[in-house]
């Protein structure tokens, strides 16, 4: 069978050479109209609405892409059959092997349709994936690597922020100590001061107000603060620095032991110290400033805990043991300081507390006075009384509790007896 060469001949069945020019034009116009009419009859109804179907498919695909944007693993999305007119076009499945899905393009030429990246078979059409640019995977991997790096950088940045907070608060603490030493102490020692010292505070009693705060100030100003500032460039030195400073930190134990006596003297001469505050133009009263060393020694553990947490998260395992040792020191020293504040509230004990050795334990204990363990009748006849017991290396001291511990006050202890 020979191929048809002339469209006009194929439509009319009459050779074009037998028609005149005018007849040819008229015939041709009519035949073209007839051909278009025949073509619309012969073409399947689905083809007429295929453009609409493809638009619907594109809408669905775009919605799926928004819902499952940048999927890394293969997924299968099944769509319901789309039926229009008297024909049906089903989409069996859209393979999402990568984040980009091939969208079919339609050409109506020759009464057929073609999909740029599809294979049409029977009543269904399967849309295969379109080729994905290799630059996508490179940028995706780059983003993942940057995410990991940013995670580590973020942890290290938080650790540096915690270290900076330690240094910043240390600097503020040194300034607070400077106000006490260069302000209150200097003014009290100034013989020509416009605020004369009361006679009751003369003869060295004023030194009991401040204890060893001058030594604490000088050590923090000249050594500890400067060493902490260097740790900002070398964070791994923080743990060893605290370890080396353990002996010096015990100055706080001595300070806290004297704190109850200091509080008592300040309370007795509140008007004098308030006059000094007004002259020095300080906002805080002396009692509030003298509590700052106690607050500071208690705060170190919290600051170190934050630094240790970020160090562990960053995987800097070589720094962890030193920071843990530092935290242990900053837990033991404040506890010893707090214990010695309780010892400092012990009154009417004629011996020397420092000669009793290290304080091992202290706390309330129910005791029976004046009864021996052999005299059971006397022991059972007496009602036990709550006393506070201080257990030292060399001695054990029993004291009566006066007052109760509240948010702003602490009890005092009156000496009752001791056993060596």
From TrEMBL:
Ubl conjugation among keywords: no
InterPro entries: DBL_dom_sf (IPR035899), DH_dom (IPR000219), GDS_CDC24_CS (IPR001331), PH-like_dom_sf (IPR011993), RhoGEF_Guanine_NuclExch_SF (IPR051336), SOS1_NGEF_PH (IPR055251)
Keyword hit for Zinc: no
Family annotation (SMART domains): RhoGEF (SM00325)
Superkingdom, natural source: Eukaryota
Chain residue ranges for the region called Disordered: 1-25
PROSITE patterns xref list: DH_1 (PS00741), DH_2 (PS50010)
Domain (DH): residue spans on this chain: 158-340
Keywords: Guanine-nucleotide releasing factor
Name of protein: DH domain-containing protein
């Amino acid at each position: 069978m020979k191929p048809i060469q002339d469209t006009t001949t194929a439509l009319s069945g009459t050779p074009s050479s037998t028609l005149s020019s005018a007849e040819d034009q008229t015939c041709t116009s009519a035949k073209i109209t007839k051909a278009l009419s025949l073509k619309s009859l012969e073409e399947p109804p689905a083809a007429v609405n295929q453009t609409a179907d493809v638009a619907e498919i594109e809408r669905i695909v775009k919605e799926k892409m928004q819902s499952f944007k940048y999927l890394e693993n293969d997924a299968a999305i099944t769509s319901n059959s789309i039926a229009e007119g008297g024909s049906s076009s089903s989409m069996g499945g859209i393979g999402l092997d990568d984040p980009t899905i091939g969208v079919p393009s339609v050409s109506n030429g020759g009464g057929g349709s073609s999909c740029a990246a599809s294979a049409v078979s029977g009543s269904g059409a399967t849309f295969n994936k379109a080729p994905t640019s290799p630059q996508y995977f490179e940028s995706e991997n780059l983003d993942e690597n940057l995410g990991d790096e940013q995670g580590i950088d973020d942890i290290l940045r938080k650790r540096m922020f915690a270290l900076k907070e330690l240094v910043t608060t240390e600097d503020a603490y040194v300034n607070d100590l400077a106000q006490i030493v260069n302000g209150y102490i200097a003014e009290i020692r100034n013989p020509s001061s416009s605020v004369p010292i009361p006679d009751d505070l003369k003869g060295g009693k004023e030194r009991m107000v401040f204890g060893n705060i001058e030594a604490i100030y000088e050590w923090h100003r000249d050594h500890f603060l400067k060493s902490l500032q260097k740790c900002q460039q070398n964070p791994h030195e923080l743990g060893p620095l605290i370890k080396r400073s353990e002996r010096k930190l015990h100055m706080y134990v001595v300070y806290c032991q004297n704190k109850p006596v200091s509080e008592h003297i300040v309370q007795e001469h509140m008007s004098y110290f308030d006059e000094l505050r007004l002259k020095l133009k300080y906002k805080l009263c002396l009692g509030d400033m003298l509590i700052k060393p106690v607050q500071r020694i208690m705060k170190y553990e919290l600051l170190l805990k934050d630094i240790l947490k970020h160090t562990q998260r960053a995987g800097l395992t070589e720094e962890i043991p030193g920071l843990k040792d530092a935290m242990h020191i900053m837990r033991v020293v404040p506890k010893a300081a707090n214990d010695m504040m309780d010892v400092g509230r012990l009154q009417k004990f004629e011996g020397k507390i420092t000669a009793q050795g290290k304080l091992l334990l202290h706390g309330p204990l129910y005791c029976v006075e004046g009864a021996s363990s052999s005299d059971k009748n006397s022991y059972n006849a007496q009602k036990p009384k709550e006393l506070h017991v201080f257990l030292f290396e060399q001695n054990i001291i029993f004291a009566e509790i006066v007052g109760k511990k509240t948010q702003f006050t602490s009890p005092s202890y009156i000496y009752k007896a001791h056993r060596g």
